[in-house]
Each structure stands twice: as structure tokens, then as C-alpha cells.
Design goal:
Structural class: mainly beta
Largest sheet: 4 strands, antiparallel
Distance between the termini: 9 Å
Number of helices: 1
Number of strands: 26
Strand content: over 45%
Oligomer: single chain
Order of helices and strands: EEEEEEEEEEEEEEEHEEEEEEEEEEE
Length: 347
């Protein structure tokens, strides 16, 4: 069952019609399509359609697996006014194991969606005509020696660059080289002992660029940076200089596997912020007051259950947390620096 939240009114759920567990869902850049990744080895793509006020509600599952009856309220199973429905438009295949993750690229590169699987591979699918996707790239055998657990596209200012986190303890980047029209893989070994579970890119805007630019004009683009999480209970911050990735900081506060990590947008302000969550049930907010400065941690909350995912809003000031209690909670920082839970939804 997939949950949609397009606004305070247009919230609902629809059946994905996967034959096994759903591990991930991801909106495209415009929020018009959602992709779901499953243990049934497929990714299903749905158009997210808002129901018209005059449109009657007749709940039924269509023959292609989409839901013809619209969205359902999370706690009631009934479509709400102004709800949404998921219309199945495509199914992506090609993996030989459960698909853990799906991520859409920025639309300036066309309709690209990357998928990561237990089968050690990453696939990049390209839409060649409406709702028709073909495999544009698949990592060669041996690129990763373990499950690929997480993906993240870089900010579009860096080009079409995809970061991948793997259980073999490495992360890799897959970059499209326009000159050769080829995808080029770069692998960073020994990133995390035992395995790498998550990856997230830093914003492209140089911290403080908004202030230095006086609130206008072009903002400086910072060197590529990203963070990874791993089974060594650590978060690592990486920076690319002179064609090489180097670890510039190791952040330690979790007492068990770190399940996910997310770097917040800084909007050009002089601060970096990272959220992490772990098997220990805790979520930490990490802040760096100035480029090159020390990172400090603040425990957001102890959920007393494994926490699987963290995700920032587009503006970077609201954090969504998905935990082992089957609950998604939303948190916001007040002007005095205190984080408050503003809502929660139980599935």
C-alpha cells in the first residue's frame, strides 16, 4: 500500500499491486509520478492523479494493477474529498533480486530513474516515449560484490551523477560523460566496515553564498560532497578534490547500525545539517557551523524502535522520520533551536 500526501487535503493511499513487500517509493521532480520498488524484483510507476470534485468514487482495482477508485484516508480506508489516485503506467524489470531503492533524476537530463537491487546491480532506465522505459545502463558484473542498498542523484549543477551505497562496504558514483556518451563508474573502497547503508549529497550551493551574494545573483557552486552511513555505526562525510574522494569527517553517536542519512538543503546559508537514523532507535541532527568546522550532534528523539528512513523537505527545515512502529512523524525546528513533532501518521 502506497501513501500519497500532495497537500493537507489530497492525502490517501492506493494499492501498488506488487506481488511482494514494497521497500521504497519515490516521487519524480514534479510530484506527478511515483515509483515503487519491491521484493518481487520490479519497479512500478504510477501517475498521481488528483480526483476532480465532481468525480464519483467507485473503489475498484483496475486490471493493470492501478487503483481506479482513488486514494484512501490512512486511518479510514475511504477516499477523502480532493483525494488522489494512482494510475499504473509502467513496470520496470531487469533485476534478479529484490529492488531496495528507486530514484528519479533531475528533469534536465530527461526522464531517468535509477534502481538498486540485492542482485549487486544498479540500473538506469530512460523513458523513450510516454510511459515506455528502456535500460540505458546497468553496472557491469563485479562493480559491487554485495547488495546495493541506496541511491542518490547529485544536485543537477554537477551533471548526471548517481551515488550508490553497497553492502560490500563501498560506495560508487556513476557519471554520464557527454563527450563519449557513456556512463563512467568510480568506486570508493573501504567506506564502511561490514557494509554501507545510505548515501546523500550535500547541496551544490556553497555554504554562506546567499549571504555573501547579498541575497541575489549567482551562487557559488561548492566542491562535490556527500555523506554515507554504515554498519560500523558511523556517518562519514566525503569530499571530492582533484578527482579523488577523501573522508573529511567521521561522525559517531549511534550505538548500532546507521540505517539512513540525509543532508539538508542549506539555501546558501552558512551552515550544513545532516540527519541520521539507526537501529538503536535514535535520530540525530548534525550541524557544521562553518565550512571546515567541527560537526556537533543533537539527539532529536529516541523512538524505541529501529528507525529506517529520514527525509528533508525541499526547503530543508522539516524532517520526516519513518520508524519500526509503522509510523511516519514530521519534525520542525523552532526559532529557538528546539525540534518539535508537528504530526504523525500510522500505517
Amino acid at each position: 500500500c502506497v501513501s500519497l500526501n500532495m497537500s493537507a487535503v489530497a492525502r490517501g493511499t492506493f494499492e501498488s499491486a506488487h506481488a511482494d513487500a514494497v521497500h521504497d517509493c519515490a516521487y519524480d521532480y514534479f510530484g506527478r509520478r511515483v515509483a515503487t520498488a519491491s521484493s518481487d524484483r520490479t519497479v512500478r510507476i504510477f501517475d498521481v492523479v488528483q480526483r476532480q470534485p465532481h468525480q464519483p468514487h467507485h473503489p475498484s482495482t483496475s486490471s493493470d494493477g492501478g487503483v481506479d477508485g482513488g486514494a484512501h484516508v490512512v486511518n479510514g480506508g475511504v477516499t477523502i474529498d480532493g483525494g488522489v489516485r494512482g494510475e499504473h503506467v509502467a513496470t520496470l524489470t531487469g533485476h534478479d533480486g529484490p529492488v531496495w531503492c528507486a530514484r528519479w533524476a533531475h528533469p534536465k537530463f530527461g526522464a531517468l530513474i535509477a534502481t538498486a537491487s540485492f542482485d549487486h546491480s544498479v540500473m538506469i532506465h530512460k523513458e523513450t516515449e510516454p510511459n515506455v522505459f528502456v535500460c540505458a545502463y546497468k553496472t557491469p558484473v563485479g562493480t559491487h560484490d554485495g547488495s546495493v542498498n541506496a541511491l542518490a542523484w547529485a544536485p543537477h549543477e554537477y551533471g548526471a551523477v548517481l551515488a550508490c551505497a553497497s553492502s560490500d562496504g563501498t560506495f560508487s558514483t556513476i557519471t554520464y560523460d557527454a563527450a563519449s556518451a557513456q556512463w563512467v563508474v568510480e568506486k570508493v573502497p573501504h567506506a564502511h566496515a561490514i557494509g554501507c547503508t545510505g548515501v546523500s549529497w550535500a547541496p551544490s550551493a556553497m555554504p554562506g553564498s546567499l549571504v555573501s551574494a547579498g541575497g541575489g545573483g549567482d551562487h557559488a557552486v561548492s566542491p562535490q560532497r556527500l555523506c554515507t552511513s554504515g554498519c560500523d555505526n558511523a556517518i562519514k562525510v566525503w569530499r571530492r578534490d582533484a578527482g579523488q574522494w577523501t573522508c573529511e569527517a567521521t561522525l559517531s553517536a549511534h550505538t548500532d547500525w546507521v540505517r539512513d542519512v540525509a543532508w539538508s538543503e542549506n539555501m546558501g546559508l552558512p551552515m550544513n545539517t545532516i540527519a541520521s537514523c539507526g537501529q538503536d532507535g535514535k535520530v540525530f541532527i548534525w550541524t557544521q557551523g562553518a565550512p571546515g568546522g567541527a560537526w556537533t550532534s543533537h539527539e532529536l528523539h529516541n523512538f524505541n524502535a529501529p528507525v529506517w528512513r529520514v527525509s528533508w523537505s525541499t526547503m530543508g527545515n522539516i524532517l520526516a522520520v519513518s520508524d519500526g512502529n509503522n509510523t511516519v512523524s514530521i519534525w520542525k525546528e523552532s526559532i529557538d533551536g528546539v525540534w518539535n513533532q508537528i504530526t504523525a501518521a500510522a500505517e
